[in-house]
Write a structure and sequence with these properties.
- The chain has 2 domains: 2-220, Rossmann fold, CATH 3.40.50.300; 233-347, RNA polymerase II/Efflux pump adaptor protein, barrel-sandwich hybrid domain (OB fold (Dihydrolipoamide Acetyltransferase, E2P), Beta Barrel), CATH 2.40.50.100.
- It contains 9 helices and 20 strands.
- It has helices spanning 39-47, 89-94, 104-117, 133-145, 163-180, 191-197, 215-220, 225-230, 320-326; strands spanning 2-11, 14-23, 28-32, 54-59, 62-63, 74-77, 151-155, 183-188, 200-205, 208-214, 235-242, 245-248, 251-254, 265-269, 275-277, 288-298, 303-309, 312-318, 333-337, 344-347.
- Strands 6-7-8-3-9-10 form a 6-stranded mixed β-sheet, sandwiched between helices. Strands 13-12-11-14-20 form a 5-stranded antiparallel β-sheet. It has a 5-stranded antiparallel β-sheet with strand order 15-19-16-17-18.
- The chain is globular.
């Protein structure tokens, strides 16, 4: 468990202000935000590497705000792994022993067990400068786990990896979390990693939390256009509330649930929730709008289809199979369908 209450960190030209956060025992939390928002500074403050001006930090045993890093019970993995180039893999791992009370034989036994679990036994005598990106991160994870942390802090551990290695480490982190029951807190700017790995997420910008909660809640009901855009809600349309829903570009869009108490709002929907259908004659059904495809971009696992319709530009994410079955190309007419239960009203 890790809990932060009203934390302030002051640095030249930047500050974290009034940060409160709780990741329960055994949970996987994520911090997301743009570059320079304070994610890594917050992680370093939790680890004891940045001075705290105000506030408190707790682990499962109690307050640790003023404890040195080695007494906090946290493991830390950086983006660049921070391995010592003059030591081989085994020596890098055993370096962690000086921060534990375990006998060397016990540390070696645990090192061998973790090395086997994470698939690096064959690398123990290797020069760390010869390791691939995925191998380097596996070594860094074993080193962090050797101190028997109650919390594992991860500072963008996947961002510098090639796609193949990134997916490999994603699955490894997922397996470690499930098998070891570790509390984890990961810094990232990739919302897809959050969806795959985390249960809770906090969005940070300019040193302040904008929104935090369960991943599904934050990603489907963002509280601001900034959060919506950052978590991948590409479709944001200026809207005005009406008795039957909202008015977008002069067209009524039916919504479900309570509206916002403001005339200035944005109607949002995730691109994977937008439906496309062949054009059909006659009166349009509820939340169905004729349009034409303006562009298609292939992203491997999905196609991003941009459509110009009466509401403006709308983007839909379809699987390659769904796009083939649609049978349309740029310039062709389609029907855009916005399921009412997937729409979100956001204060502008």
């Amino acid at each position: 468990m890790i809990e932060v209450q009203n934390l302030d960190v002051r640095l030249p030209g930047f500050a974290l202000e009034n940060i409160s956060l709780c990741v329960p025992q055994g949970a996987f939390g994520a911090l997301i935000g743009p570059t320079g928002s304070g994610k890594s500074i917050l992680l370093e403050a939790l680890a004891g590497l940045q001075p705290v001006k105000r506030g408190q930090i707790f682990n499962h045993r109690g307050e640790i705000t003023r404890l040195p890093p080695e007494r906090r019970g946290f493991g830390l993995v950086y983006q660049d792994a921070a391995l010592f180039p003059h030591l081989n893999v085994r020596e890098n791992l055993l370096f962690a022993r000086r921060y534990t009370d375990l006998a060397k034989a016990e540390v070696v036994r645990e090192m061998n067990e973790l090395s086997e679990r994470l698939g690096i036994t064959h690398l123990l005598q290797r020069d760390v400068r010869t390791l691939s990106g995925g191998e380097t991160q596996r070594v860094a994870l074993v080193r962090a786990l050797l101190v028997r942390p109650s919390v594992l802090l991860l500072d963008e551990p996947l961002s510098a990896l090639d796609p193949v290695f990134r997916e490999e480490i994603q699955y490894l982190l997922q397996r470690l979390h499930q098998e070891m029951g570790l509390t984890m807190l990961m810094v990232t700017h990739n919302f897809e990693e959050v969806v795959m790995l985390a249960e809770q997420v906090a969005v940070i910008h300019q040193g302040r939390f904008l929104q935090k909660g369960a991943v599904q809640e934050v990603f489907t009901t963002p509280r601001s256009p900034f959060v919506a855009r950052f978590v991948g809600m590409k479709n944001l349309l200026a809207a005005t509330p009406t008795q039957d829903g909202v008015l977008v570009a002069g067209h009524v869009v039916r919504t479900i649930g309570p509206g916002r108490e403001t005339n200035n709002q944005v109607l949002g929907i995730r691109p994977e929730d937008v439906l496309l259908a062949p054009p059909h004659p006659g009166a349009p059904s509820s939340n169905a709008y004729p349009g034409s495809i303006s562009a298609v971009t292939y992203h491997g696992v999905h196609c991003a289809v941009r459509v110009e319709c009466a509401l403006g530009e709308v983007t839909a994410h379809l699987s390659p199979r769904e796009y083939r079955e649609l049978g349309c190309s740029p310039g062709d007419a389609v029907t855009v369908i916005l399921p009412a239960e997937k729409l979100c009203s956001i204060p502008a």
